[in-house]
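Thread title: Can someone regenerate the structure for this chain?

I was given the following input by a collaborator and told the matching structure tokens would be attached. They weren't. Posting the sequence so someone can regenerate them.
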Amino acid sequence: MSVVAALVNQKGGVGKTTVAVHLAYWLSLRGSVIVVDADAQHSSSNWLKDLNLPCQVTSDPEDLLDSLPQLAQKFDTVIVDGPAGLSEVTKSILYASDLALVPCKPSGLDTHSSGKILRMLRQAQRIRGGMPQGALFLNQAVKGTVLLKESQELLTNTGFPLLSTVIYNRQVISDAPGQGLTVWQALGATAKSAASDFESLFTEALEVLNAES
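Best answer:
Regenerated them for you:
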């Protein structure tokens, strides 16, 4: 069964594109995958060219509603890199996705503002009878900080699962887009740790979807 998985959050700079591209690469080793770049900056489409992974660029709400189900018939997984902001584009993505992943940075402003995208996600679920499944995860975190612990506590009370895997702020992840690679192609122990974190995150995210199927 094909899956449409979206990275969504109204805030920019939370790592939607980085996670979307790494998820697409990880899934490409297991089956067919395409990324739909719905972000006006088109960051993921440029990066995906370097990785030789298929990508479609569209930020039109009506086009997304039509194209996402069509792509799901051709590929095992469709990954959507959503835009910043709560727009009709984000609504269309939620209305056509099976799984919505919400990256959150561990800061007071970011964790509190996640309520807006979660409200939109709940609205989509009411209209679609429980779909898409949703989950949050902490991204760009610093190990052992009070802020990380506080953010984890805040995000466990949203009504959506908070994935236990945390993606930490590592230079190798920040450098990946400019080098046109993922952490799996990078060298060194830090890259290996980052790859392990991503694999754990993605496995956990797919388990959320499978648990409800």
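The domain at 3-191 is CATH 3.40.50.300 (Rossmann fold).
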